[in-house]
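A quick aside before the break. I want you to see a complete sequence-to-structure record at least once, exactly as it would be stored in a machine-readable document. Don't worry about memorizing anything.
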Amino acid sequence: MTAVVIPMHPPSGGTVQLHRILGVLPENTWAWSIFDLWAVGVAPRGMTMPAFEDLVQTSATGYRMTWRELTDAASRLDQVHDCLIVAADSPHLLSRPLSGRPGLLVVIEALDSGRWEVEISERLDGADAMRERLASLVRGPGASGRESGCG
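That is the input. The structure line, written in tokens, reads:
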């Protein structure tokens, strides 16, 4: 997989939010799971954010979600400090440890409130176009706004 590195605070100003990253990807039926999260915003299912973060951290399979659930959750986050979110062909591929696991389609990491690293599998149709759209988040207009939310 090839990674695209995106500063969270690009020279063009603003903040690149998770929902903007997800907005580059096509609507899909992939299996998604959050394996790490430290964020500010509204957690799913009425949980407090600390309780949700703990749930994500302690589960061997992360917090599994559909595309719709993930994009909805992302739209409710004000800031992501750290995260690890992955997509795979099948939910059975989503368990710790993840490194070297075949079948991963997308890996999204937020690192130290400083940058995003997004890996997209070469197996996906349009992978190069998705990478180009990700790179354009740094230089394009609207990098900080919620007006182009996903899902």
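Two observations worth writing down. DSSP finds four helices and six strands in the chain. The two ends are 25 Å apart (CA to CA). We'll return to this after the break.
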